[in-house]
Amino acid sequence: MITAPFEARRFQSTAAYYLRYRIPYPDSLIARVAERSGLKAGGHVLDLGCGPGQLGIAFARLQGAAVTAMDPEPEMLAAAEAGAKDAGVEITLRQGSSYDLGPDIGRLHLCVMGRSFHWMDRPATLTALDTLIEPGGAVVLFGDRHIEASPDWRTIVDKLTETFSPERHEQRLLRKSKAWAPHEAMLLASPFNNLERIGIVSEYQKDIEDIVGRVFSMSSTSPQALGDKLADFEAALRAELLDTAPDGKITEIVESNGLLAFRG
């Protein structure tokens, strides 16, 4: 089975861009996942690979959950701490990765992950979570499906990534290939093999600054990954975006979704 290489500091240069430029998960999606999973106020939620804590903060703010936010990246945890303060909620911050899951975390009702599961040893992570998640609890993988973008800025970014960040581009292609087992297959082979998905479709109006910031929040095109090619990449990206969107406006239709995995 092919797994993504673990790189603890992979996202150290993206923290400043995450909260500002990533499309947030809709409150309605958080509420529906909480309802379907039977999460009560005070229920323990682990936001694993939390980044700047978007999911954990949302569950604390909207559902009154007791949240532990865990990430290997100190900059991400600092952003999560600031985000929680701004939201008026308290969360427990914990530096570590899926390799550090253990009984000291405590019993969980939910483990939620937002676009982080593919960086983990997925079978080992699910085995560890089986010892922590209480009966009736679940693993929830959050993600998004980009239905349409006008203009299609992702094609532009893919082409530029191949030129400016070829190694990260190859890693990304691997995760999209048939050699990469989908998350659903990993879950079906685990104790959490009762699957269902909840999705919310929304339209967003963005500008070129929004897209550039979001691109820098991605590991394959982060400032760290681009290194001394950063300025040339940004200039090329801005030029191509402006060429395809002279008014500087981009419309996106995105499905934000949560894949709930209960024990069978």
From TrEMBL:
GO-annotated biological processes: methylation
SUPFAM superfamilies referenced in this protein's UniProt entry, alphabetically: S-adenosyl-L-methionine-dependent methyltransferases
GO MF assignments:
methyltransferase activity
Q: Which residues form the Methyltransferase domain?
A: 45-137
Keywords for this entry? Methyltransferase, Transferase
Entries under InterPro entries matching the protein: Diverse_substrate_MTase, Methyltransf_25, SAM-dependent_MTases_sf
Protein name per its UniProtKB record: SAM-dependent methyltransferase
Origin species, per record, is Rhizobium paranaense
Q: What is the lineage of its organism?
A: Bacteria, Pseudomonadati, Pseudomonadota, Alphaproteobacteria, Hyphomicrobiales
